[in-house]
Amino acid sequence: MPDLRYVPEQRLWLLHTPSTVYAVGLDDDDNVRHLHWGARLTEAQIGELARRAPAEGSSFDTAGGPEEFGAEGGARFGPPSLQVRFADGSRGVEWRYAGHDTDDGHLSIHLDDRHYPLRVTLHYRVHDDSDVIERWTSIANTGKKIVIQRCDSAAWTLPHRGSYRMSHLVGGWNSEFRLRRTDVPVAETVFTSRTGLTSHQANPWLALDDGSASEEHGEVWSTALAWSGSWRITLHRGPTGRTTWTGGHGHEGLTWTLDKGETLRTPVYAGLYTAGGFGAASRAWHAYVSRHVLAQPAETRPVLYNSWEATGFDVDEAGQTALAARAARLGVELFVVDDGWFGKRVNDHAGLGDWTPNPDRFPHGLRPLADEVHRLGMLFGLWVEPEMVNPDSDLYRAHPDWVLHTAHRGRTEMRNQLVLNLARPDTAAWAHAWLDRLVADNDIDFLKWDANRAFTEAGWPGHADPDRLWLDHTRAVYQIMDRLRADHPRLRIEACSGGGGRADLGILARTDQVWTSDNTDPVDRIGIQDGFSQLFPAQVMGAWVTDSPNVATARRTPLRFRFHVAMAGALGIGGDLTTWPETELKEAAELIEVYKRIRPAVQHGTAYRMAGDGTLSAVGYAYQDQFVVLAWCPSRPFGHDPAPLRLTALDPAAFYRDTESGAVHSGAVLRESGLLLDLPKGDHASAVVQLIRI
Asked: Sign of the C-alpha dihedral, residues 591, 593, 597, 601?
């Protein structure tokens, strides 16, 4: 059972995870103060921390110890987690402790404002198999209207260290999940998305260390927000060194109104401490995602084929049937028809929103193609974009008010499309109805759910609280996905947003994998996949093999190298198989067989990132008696072959047999001196090694 303790004589709460403890307490004014987040301490030791007198503040600085959830008001000058305005125009909060509840690992601390009809509950949840702490906040109005200007899910505080470093993910379309590691300035640093989606430019994952952590050693504190809309995280390092951050849904400038009896619940903002470096942090996150986020973690993700790069918008039954036959020959297990199958969708200018099969291209609907794909032994999947609409569509002509728009302002088109307002119950009901019918009528196994543009003119004319759409649209997406999965238990969903623009723990709670990036160039993908792996496990990472030269970069790479990079996740094929010569089709089929042999380790094993000489990098996967290595060397100068790759995750007392060569290696030798990789000569070299413990 999860270990939650309350110490009434000291007004302390202790939350124990398998390796850590998190502690908070009430001060004399009923402010909840943060006491500890890190290695295990005893109850007496936490009590000693609680008895320490807080530092005296000046008239220009914040007094007292760090608050667990800082509200605007009083001598608080850092970034607030809570900002409210009451009906009489007053701002700020003064707390009165109103009790707490515990239930199966869930702690709720209730705080009332001393005068106004406001109750805030701080929620904490721990699991007995994870060091991740889940936190969220609920805010309730028991009287006159309250305007919420900011309500974060949680704030986090670091213990004092001499310096701090932050790790976060940056990028853009075709260049998502680029890991950046830099010192924390004495300032407020804001990470945010204002797009209505998680975004390509940033991700709501953040890690901090004291500047000395490595992949295998050092203290790391990291957090991840489970939200798929706009968000904001504010990191604050003060001049005395205190470092805190607060985060939640919504970006600056939005307000939400709570009427009497209403409650707003924020998304989960989860946090993790480890003393084992960035690699241990990633492995803890991967295990948490598998055990407590994914709906079907034990399932093996199938090898898929997607028709987009083969056909573009030129989609018809005969062409897709021919591609399906070729894909089946390779050993593909899931065939996905991409954009262009519906309405008048012959390009990206028209048809989006008219979700019925194009009668010229599919005269008998999609069912004959679905049946043929199933006959070939594959699952059948389909691309959809339920949140968007082309102005040139029957849907928009019938319901122009269903899109996000603002009175007396133009409607900005991006990719020739607008965003449907799924916060509207009628729009959401329509979206669910056609998706439900489509899945049922065509026996669909898999949906690639895309969202190809950011929000603009995000208004709702006539609505009393229009900014709520920033929250309610995302909640509607969640609800539609949840209903579809409940009504169609075999249905699996891939989250996509022009590539990796919507990847977070919120969307993963109702999908099975994420389309990582539209950029499938294997050299670029090594970096993209490395950043993605900081939080997400391999089984949710969609990774495709496409044509050479690559459509995004024009880089030419060998088929073997493309496959070996894509094997690090949920493998997919996205090239034009009609142009692949027989030699490549044969090689692809052989490589897919290799992937299927190592797939249990890749998708369900424990991942270890490794770096070698020069550009050599690798990922190892420990699973049962196996250790699988995928290694890539994009470039190297003549005469500088990489040194053997150290496999530090192996048991030094064990021996391992290479399934390809039959060679037997000592675990101690592989840990200390490394594995000599059989890399082809030249650039874009790669290797797969499967070791079996004997």
From this structure: positive
Instruction: Let me know how many helices (H) and strands (E) the chain has, helices first.
Output: 13, 37
Q: What is the dihedral of CA 150, 154, 157, 158, to 10 degrees?
A: -120
Six token digits for residue 246: 């607060």
User: Could you give the CA distance from residue 647 to residue 664 in angstroms, rounded to a whole number?
Assistant: 15
What is residue 237's three-state secondary structure?
Answer: strand
Any known ligand binding at 451?
yes
The three-class DSSP label of residue 321 is helix
Beta pairing partners, 208: 166, 221
Q: What spatial distance separates the first Cα and last Cα of the chain, rounded to whole Å?
A: 36
Residue 156 labeled ligand binder: no
Using an 8 Å Cβ cutoff, are 501 and 176 in contact? yes
Q: What are the φ and ψ backbone dihedral angles of 44, each rounded to 5 degrees?
A: -65, -40
Nearest to 12 by CA among 54, 68, 64: 68
Domains of the chain: 72-292 (2.70.98.60), 304-518 (3.20.20.70), 609-693 (2.60.40.1180)
Write out the two tokens for 665.
Answer: 């290696």
Decide if 141 contacts 484 (C-beta within 8 A).
no
Determine the Cα–Cα distance for residues 435 and 387; give it in Å rounded to an integer. Answer: 12
Half-sphere exposure of 174 (CA within 13 A, CB side): 6
Q: What is the signed CA dihedral for 213, 180, 514, 621, rounded to 10 degrees?
A: -30
Q: Is 671 annotated as a binding residue?
A: no
Three-state SS for 396?
Answer: helix
pLDDT at 446: 98
Say whether pTM exceeds 0.90.
yes
User: At 41, is the secondary structure helix, strand, or coil?
Assistant: coil
What the block records as the tokens of 470 is 């920033």
Q: Per-residue pLDDT tens for 99-144?
A: 999 999 999 999 999 999 999 999 999 999 999 999 999 999 999 9
Q: Is 672 left (phi over 0), alpha (psi -120 to 50) or beta?
A: alpha
Mean local confidence (pLDDT), 249-255: 96
State how far the Cα of 4 lies from the Cα of 127, in Å rounded to an integer.
10
259 is an annotated ligand-binding site residue: no
Radius of gyration of the chain (CA): 26
Of 113, 512, 518, 521, the catalytic one is 518
What distances in angstroms separate CA 671 from CA 651, 661, 668, one per listed residue?
8, 19, 5
Sort strands 263-265 and 178-183 into parallel, antiparallel or unpaired. unpaired
What is the enclosing helix (H) or strand (E) of 124? strand 118-126
Q: What is the pLDDT of residues 484-522, one digit of tens each?
A: 999 999 999 999 999 999 999 999 999 999 999 999 999
Task: Check whether 449 is labelled as a binding-site residue.
Answer: yes
Task: Tell me, yes or no, if 641 is annotated catalytic.
Answer: no
Angle, helices 367-375 vs 425-442, to 10°: value is 50
Query: Which tens digits make up the pLDDT trace of 529-575?
Result: 999 999 999 999 999 999 999 999 999 999 999 999 999 999 999 99
DSSP reduced 3-state for 512: coil
CA distances to 224, 494, 521, 526, 687 from 562, in Å:
30, 22, 8, 10, 11
Q: Of 7, 14, 2, which Cα lies nearest the Cα of 40? A: 14
452 is in an annotated binding site: yes
Q: Is 339 marked as binding a ligand?
A: yes
pLDDT in tens, 381-395: 999 999 999 999 999
Query: What is the C-alpha to C-alpha distance for residues 397 and 660, in angstroms, rounded to an integer?
Result: 61
* Residues in the chain, overall count: 694
Neighbours of 376 (CB within 10 A): 16
518 is catalytic: yes
DSSP secondary structure letter of residue 266? P
Q: Which of 112, 131, 152, 450 is catalytic?
A: 450
